[in-house]
């Protein structure tokens, strides 16, 4: 008797990008889509600059996990079809965070978050913080296309259980 062959199935949970009339790039369809960082890498870290941004995202996520972080919401042109995004936008859930362990760079919003961008390649906001532009929390603000005002999607990443982050944190 021979051992049965194993089939491995992989499903990408990140949906295909969709066009929005009036927006220069395709974006995620409306909604909050669960994703892993490995899936983010496969879908969006496909050129040298995007890989630099992705590496910064991994570093930021590991730092947040060290402080008790559980979830990061990812947005911006990085999760669009824009070939060379300037950066990425993210917010982190404050539930479970030990603020004594949180890297102070996550609370530095000076000069358009220059220190965050220099260190991680993107900018981070607490998810419960209100975006002054529209008077809504960042998880809502991120779901509005800046060119058209129409709804678009975001990614939710459970960083405290994500294999990519956990491997990065091992000594």
Account of the protein in words:
It is a single chain. The protein is α/β, with parallel strands linked by helices and 171 residues long. The chain has one domain. Helix content is 29%, strand content 18%. The protein has five helices and seven strands; from the N terminus they run βααββαβββαβα. It has helices spanning 37-44, 48-66, 110-120, 138-141, 163-169, and strands spanning 31-35, 71-75, 88-92, 122-126, 130-131, 136-137, 153-158. Strands 1-7-2-3-4 form a five-stranded mixed β-sheet. Strand 3, helix 3 and strand 4 form a beta-alpha-beta unit. Helix 1 (37-44) packs antiparallel against helix 2. The radius of gyration is 17 Å and the shape is globular. The N and C termini lie far apart (44 Å). Mean pLDDT is 92; it is low at 1-9.
């Amino acid at each position: 008797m021979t051992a049965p062959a194993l089939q491995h199935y992989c499903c990408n949970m990140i949906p295909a990008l969709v066009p929005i009339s009036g927006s220069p790039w395709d974006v995620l369809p409306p909604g909050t889509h669960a994703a892993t960082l490995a899936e983010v890498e496969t879908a969006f870290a496909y050129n040298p600059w995007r890989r630099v941004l992705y590496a910064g995202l991994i570093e930021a996520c590991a730092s947040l996990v060290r402080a008790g972080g559980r979830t990061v919401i990812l947005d911006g042109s990085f999760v669009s079809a824009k070939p060379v995004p300037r950066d990425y936008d993210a917010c982190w859930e404050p539930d479970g965070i030990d603020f004594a362990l949180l890297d102070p760079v996550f609370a530095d919003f000076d000069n358009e978050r220059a220190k965050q961008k220099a260190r991680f390649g993107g900018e981070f906001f607490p998810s419960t913080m209100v975006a002054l532009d529209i008077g809504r929390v960042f998880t809502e603000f991120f779901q509005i296309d800046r060119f058209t005002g129409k709804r678009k999607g975001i990614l939710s990443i459970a960083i405290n259980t994500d294999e990519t982050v956990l491997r990065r944190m091992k000594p």
